[in-house]
Amino acid sequence: MIESIPPLHQHYKTLVRNLHCHGTDHGQGPVTEECQLPLIDLNGLNSLDERERLECAAAICSASSEWGFFQVVNHGISPELLKNMKTEQLNLFGVPFEQKATCGLLNNSYRWGTPSATRPTQYSWSEAFHIPVTKISDQACYGDGFSSLREVMEVFAGAMANLAELLAGILVNNLGYRKEALQDICDSSTCFLRLNRYPACPISPEMFGLVPHTDSDFLTILSQDEVGGLQLLKDSKWVAVKPNQDALIVNIGDLFQAWSNDVYKSVEHKVMANEKRERYSIAYFMCPSYDSLIGSCRSQSSIYRNFTFRDYRNQVQQDVQKLGHKVGLSRFLLR
């Protein structure tokens, strides 16, 4: 049988052996409860009743400030499209590992484990394709046998982009700006689609599928399966997000927190591996152009100095190389 799963176990054991340690205590604190994220029905935005439209928009903004996360239903992305995307995702990850890792598939976007990890607590038990949206339509990135993947992913990425623009426009308008203000910053050429697979992990129930982090973008939209494993930091405690297959999860990224002058919150989150079941998810990352100034929309009382997406990415990469982890927005505080 040809193995499609990356050698996560072997790589992790090597990391532990090199450090002469065996601990998997991540020092993140126990999960105290399972939470239901704020659930918002986007049909409210199309209501003939102005009060209902305003209430729906207000719920989006409130959740972005209080939670940094929320989930949406009646979001306009059909169940059939989500099902087709999941089918294509399963087929893609079923490709032999060596082919995924070496053939340059999808713009050479395949990632597995955590190459930069220097200790077990920095290791992610997962594999992913982190695909630039601009490459999704490029037939040369697929090779033979993936034409249906390209067709489905084109439609899926377009639908996610439209939803991201809708939600971001509401959040920008709430700050007193026209939604076009974000169009001057964000650029589809730097947005990404990430297909994730978290294999069952026999090592420990405390193993990270994805290490604690915040997203380095404006806005993320996530489609996940029923397995669960997503956790976020709420009131200084880790809470497990109850999966809802009928909803998409939306979260604020670092750049939206900076641009909103901390009105909206980019919240630390992680994925815990499952001992017995594999997990799949797909994330759309709404990003600005690399050279657009981020800074704060409130220049007179700005918390952050002006910086670009390129500056931010470079700083994150430097910190990961030197420290083994991302530092994030605190690098760009004015005081």
Automatic annotation (TrEMBL):
The text of the family note is:
Belongs to the iron/ascorbate-dependent oxidoreductase family. GA2OX subfamily.
Q: Which PROSITE patterns match?
A: FE2OG_OXY
- The species is Malus domestica
Show which residues constitute the signal peptide.
Answer: none
Keyword Zinc carried by entry: no
Name the Pfam families on file: 2OG-FeII_Oxy (PF03171), DIOX_N (PF14226)
- Residues annotated as coiled-coil are none
Please name the taxonomic classification of the source.
Eukaryota, Viridiplantae, Streptophyta, Embryophyta, Tracheophyta
The protein's name in its UniProt record: gibberellin 2beta-dioxygenase
Keyword Oxidoreductase recorded:
yes
List the catalytic activities from the record: gibberellin A1 + 2-oxoglutarate + O2 = gibberellin A8 + succinate + CO2
